[in-house]
UniProtKB/TrEMBL annotation:
Protein name: Aldehyde dehydrogenase iron-sulfur subunit
InterPro entries referenced in this protein's UniProt entry, alphabetically: 2Fe-2S-bd, 2Fe-2S-bd_dom_sf, 2Fe-2S_ferredoxin-like_sf, 2Fe-2S_ferredoxin-type, 2Fe2S_fd_BS, Aldehyde_Oxdr_Iron-Sulfur, Beta-grasp_dom_sf
PANTHER family in the record: ALDEHYDE OXIDOREDUCTASE IRON-SULFUR-BINDING SUBUNIT PAOA (PTHR45331:SF1), OXIDOREDUCTASE, IRON-SULPHUR BINDING SUBUNIT-RELATED-RELATED (PTHR45331)
Domain 2Fe-2S ferredoxin-type: 15-91
Pfam (any one): Fer2_2
Signal peptide extent: none
């Protein structure tokens, strides 16, 4: 768009958005084009959620919104007014790891660690999806309870990529968390 002499572009209006992030209510004033990922990282300084591909293909930006996992790079922050958002920072602390975090450490479910926050949050969501009876592409019988099989877990975790190929260790961590050993 070209502007004539004397015309100027008007700034995009900023909108207030209130989010509950890791149990803490936070109000931000944002450009409506800001993704949830950028709101978390750049505005709230919660850098555990990673920007990988920025196209929703790698899962490094996975967070939980109202208990369901999403790729935060594909969602605008203003769409989550009043939502409960959980990031890796809300799970545990270095002194008191969440049991899934501890399982990842025990089973070396990470190498470079870049994808690990998204992997951990997805792992927790996968277990809840299966327990809630949400079918996946590999679910055989839609009438029966869904088994916590390796095939189900692998299929559901397929949206979280690990360049280091720590997949067997991630599976072992999930199994350990479930109390099934590895």
């Amino acid at each position: 768009m070209l502007f004539s002499r004397g015309e100027s572009m008007t700034a995009t209006p900023r909108l207030p958005v209130t989010l509950s992030v890791n149990g803490e209510v936070r109000t931000l004033t944002l450009d409506p084009r800001v993704t949830l990922l950028d709101a978390l990282r750049e505005h709230l300084l919660l850098t555990g959620t990673k920007k990988g591909c920025d196209q929703g293909q790698c899962g490094a930006c996975t967070v939980l919104v109202n208990g369901r996992r999403i790729n935060s790079c594909l969602s605008l922050a203003v769409m989550h007014e009043g939502d409960e958002i959980s990031t890796i920072e809300g799970l545990g602390t270095p002194e008191a790891l969440h049991p899934m975090q501890a399982a990842f450490v025990t089973h070396d479910g990470f190498q470079c660690g870049y994808c690990t926050p998204g992997q951990i949050l997805s792992s927790l969501a996968v277990i809840e999806e299966i327990r809630a009876g949400v079918p996946s592409h590999v679910t055989g019988d839609l009438e029966a309870p869904i088994p916590l099989s390796d095939a189900e877990i692998r299929e559901r975790m397929s949206g979280n990529l690990c360049r280091c190929a720590a997949y067997p260790n991630i599976m072992a961590a999930i199994r350990d968390y479930l109390g099934e050993g590895a």
